[in-house]
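Late entry, evening session. Most of the bench is empty. Finally got around to the prediction I had been postponing all week. Sequence below, unchanged from the version circulated by S.P.
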Amino acid sequence: MENDKNNDANITPKKVLVLFAHPSLRRSEVNAPLFNVAKQAEGVTAVDLYAEYPTLHIDIDREQKRLIANDIVIFQFPLYWYSTPSILKEWQDLVLEYGFAYGSKGTALHGKTFMCAISAGGKEEFYKADGYNHFKIRELLHPLEQMSNLVGMRYMAPYSLFGSRTAAEDGKVTSHTEGYRQLLTALVNDTLDLDVVAKREKVTAANLSTMMKGATS
């Protein structure tokens, strides 16, 4: 036990950057409480992109400095038309520029970790080959996975909530929010098994505990 304590003391906390995008935050029943958790979490820098850039004039230098300063980057957003809200696409187009994020000299993000925290309006069974939306949730995020691969970041399965339109009345928000708190804490403390998470289809509040270091399946 003493050795375990010494090992824990030697762990350097990770720095996590949450880039949050919700174009209609006042109507949010899921993402607003999630973002509040991120703002309160130790070791996490939480940025509301729509609040910070209401005219979409993104400060490239500021955003690149944020990326350099952090070890883990999370895009938090509601799934809009099977993709991100528009400001996250604008952010990618401007911030992840040649010579910084990719190209022979664009190695600033190599070795960092990338993850999405998303909410989807449809039920979980809608997101499969024979379901209403025809694709699994991770398949719909393939453009972000490839973006992560191109810039040298390690891609993780998304932290996901389905049925978000009725999540509040179905009593799902509290458990999902608490799961997000646990996820962020595990990322900061480096207790999440990234090798396991990288291979999964999705991360949820229900299966998060099985992805911790030392967990048995």
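Two things to note before I forget:
Residues 119 and 208 are 16 Å apart (CA to CA).
Residues 173-189 form the longest helix (17 residues).
Will write this up properly tomorrow.
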